[in-house]
Design goal:
heterodimer; A: globular; B: MetI-like fold; two-stranded antiparallel ribbon; 13 helices; 2 strands
Chain lengths: 281, 294
Amino acid sequence: MTEHSRLRRVLPHIWLWLAIAVIVFPIFLVFVASTHTNADILAAPMPLKPGPHFFENYRRALIEGSANLGASAWTMMKNSLIMALGIAVGKIVVSLLAAYAIVFFKFPGRSFCFWAIFITLMLPVEVRIMPTYKVISDLGMLNSYAGLILPMIVSATAVFLFRQFFMSVPREIAEASQIDGASPMAFFTEILVPMTRTPIAAMFVIQFIYGWNQYLWPLLITTKEKYYTLLIGINRMLAGADVLIEWQIVMATTLLAMLPPVIVVVLMQKQFVAGMTDTEK
Amino acid sequence: MSKQYEFPSKGLPYLLVLPQMAVVFVFFFWPAAQAVFQSFFLQDPFGGKMLFVGFENYSTLFEDPAYWASFGRSFLYAALVAVSAMTTALFLAVQANKPLRGAGFYKTMLIWPYAVATMVAGVLWIFMFNPNIGVIAYFLKNSLGFDWNHLLNERQAFLLVTIAAAWKQVAYNFVFFLAGLQSVPAALVEAAAIDGAGPTKRFWTIVFPLLSPTTFYLLVMNVVYGFFETFPIIHQATQGGPGQATNILVYKVWRDGVVNLDLGGSSAQSVVLMILVIGLTVAQFRFIERKVTY
């Protein structure tokens, strides 16, 4: 072994560790800051080792929340969870039904439905902010879970993924179930959906993260503390004057906001990667 | 015979697509139509009068140098984010795709930041670079004598949001590049190695061309991300400032509409953005179609 080839073997490790350091460092800082008092953080430079106030800070964040906010991380976590689950489950159910209709039934207007769903890809919420806000306000859904969830449960990608999967299901199964006297809905709930487990799991991971990390939409339609999600709470805590920011609480809340989606990705990495790369096609 | 078997039901399919179509119409088509409609009117923000003005909102927009500046800024920003996030991810994917001890660990560590919200990425970076308490800002000032203040310095603000946006996007690109690399036939690469091509040459003449569908897909997705989905970073880190330094198009739509209540102008901007997304989507699908026919 020459020096050259030894370097060649070690080099990838060095690069990858460097990348991991760049990824982890900001998050490590957040953790460290969440274990100190605000005074320690404000006395620049802040300490780079974890401090003794972990339990105190997280207890305050979870139960009371920052003094300038009026919502506890516990409440906000509940709201984030309701929103994320509502969006993920809603998207999956609505998309499964639509894909089922499009693949297994022939009806006038079928291709129209398909294209209508397809076009939603071109209308991200960012480009229709004001008018969508107006629709929600006209429907009386400001500051409500329905308002947070409903406009988000359309997903062209989920419909495409399920459609693709359904098209690969042998039609003989559908026909056989008919001959056996099962209704189309019985075929759907008892045979088709159980077969679709894997794509459903993949979609769930992706859409849960998507839902949990929603920002612009809740920012627009939640003005009551009761409906703040974690991300909105963090924004409001940081929006006030500098002297009022309780960094230790903000950082504890930030870590709490990161934890659930990260856990989901790490635990379901395989389904996640498969889901991501399948929707590309 | 029964290859395309379809259920003979008449009413059921409509019932099945109803929820999806209802949401599509109420929350997508109706607001989009409203945006187009409102872009032709001047509206009193406090309810009431609407005045038809034709294309005046558009001509005001296109005659406004600030709008064009925002346009150019958004393109520069999206391009920088896309290029830096994609090259970093490709480089790391190539490293992680080598037969390494602990490859699984590396992959997990590089994939999980996908789950970090874009908004949180903004918080992480302003916390490190906060001119008063940020660890890196302190280090730059006291160790390198470099005065960091993105609240005052326009270039620094632009740089900060670009890095934060790219930092968050690397994981997404990594997932796709790694999947792409894994589907490159090993026999092809080995054949080239036997023919005497070195690792660098093998990468550029065989692997990289085979990755081109992935690269193109990611390019579109990254531009879309930079253009539209990084709103939370801008909103959290710089609020479009200082001055106009980080006021990209999506942020401007929001600021003009929600903060300044210029509904007509904001709607006209929305319509321009919609046309932009449609262009990007069409470009992407034409490319995919071509890939399929070849």
